[in-house]
Amino acid sequence: MEPSVVSLKLAHPYIHLYRGKVFVIKVGGGVLANKGSCRALAGQIALLSDLGIRVVIVHGGGPQASELSRKLGIEPAIVAGRRITSDDVLNVAVMTYAGAINTAFVATLSAQGVRAVGLTGVDAGSVKVHRRPPVTILDDDGRPQTVDFGHVGDIDAVEPDLLTSLLDAGFTPTIACVCADAEGKLLNVNADGIAEAVAAALQAKKLIFVTEVKGLLGDPKDGATLIPFIDHAGLARLLESGSITAGMRPKVEACMRATKNGVKRTHIINGNDPDSLLIELFTGKGCGTMIVSEREKQSYQNEELA
Known about the structure:
Elements: H1 3-18, E1 22-27, H2 29-33, H3 35-50, E2 54-59, H4 62-71, E3 78-79, E4 82-83, H5 87-111, E5 116-120, E6 127-131, E7 135-138, E8 144-147, E9 152-158, H6 161-168, E10 172-176, E11 178-180, E12 186-189, H7 191-201, E13 206-211, E14 229-231, H8 232-241, H9 248-260, E15 265-270, H10 276-282, E16 289-292, H11 294-305
Helix pairs in contact: 3-5, 4-5, 7-9
C-alpha cells in the first residue's frame, strides 16, 4: 500500500472527529513575513476548510510593526513580550496589522481557495475592550516593574454573532489585533489574547498557535527537548522554573485560560516547518506541543489506550 494511502487511512478518524467543529488558528507575524511559509500555511487552511472544519484566524505582526517603527525613527519598547503603544506606535499598529498584513494574508488565503474575510476586533463590536491601566508585572528577569502600556486594550468580552454568521455562510474570518473601547478609541490588543477569547466564545474544539518555534522546550536553548504534551500542572512548573519567557509566555497563559473556559485542546507549532499544521492535527505523534486541562488529559490518554 502506498504511504500516502496509509497516511489518509490514519487521518480518517480525525477527519470524522473534526468535521463541523471550530478551530481558531493564531498566526504569528514572523510566519506571515516568510512568503513561502505563509503560502504553505494558507494551503493547509484551505484543506481544513474543504474537510468541513470551521476556521477562524487571528494574526499578529510584531516583527513587521517593529520594522516600520524603526523606519519611522520610533524604537519599539517591549516588556515581558508585550508592546508599549504610544500615539505614534498606535498609528503604526493600525497601518501594519489592520492594513498591510491583513490585506496581504487575506489575498494569500483567497489564492488558495479560502473564502477569507478580513476583519478587526472593531467590526460589529466583536471584541469588547478597555484601555489597560498601569500594571505591575514581572519582567524577563523576574523583577516587579510598573508599566503603562499606553494605547493597549484588555479584553472584556467577545460578541460572536458576526463570526458565527460568517462561519455559517462558509467564510473564514481573518482578524487583525486592533480593537476599540466603548468610546470608539482604537487600541492595540495582544493577538494571543484575542485568539484565546474568540476560541472560548465559540467553544472551539482547538486553539492553535502557529509560531516560529516547535513548541514548548524543557530547555529553551535545546531544540531536542520538545515537550509534545503537557497539562496545567506541568506548565506551572515550567513557568516557575523560568523556562518560559518573552513572547512565549502570553501564548502559554492564553492556552491555560482557554482550556479552563471550554476549549478542549490547544497547540503550539512551528509554522515554518513543512505541513506542520496537518501533522499536528492529523497524526497521533504530532510535531508541536499540545496543552490541555487535567480533565482533558485523562480523556486524551483514554483515547491513546483505545
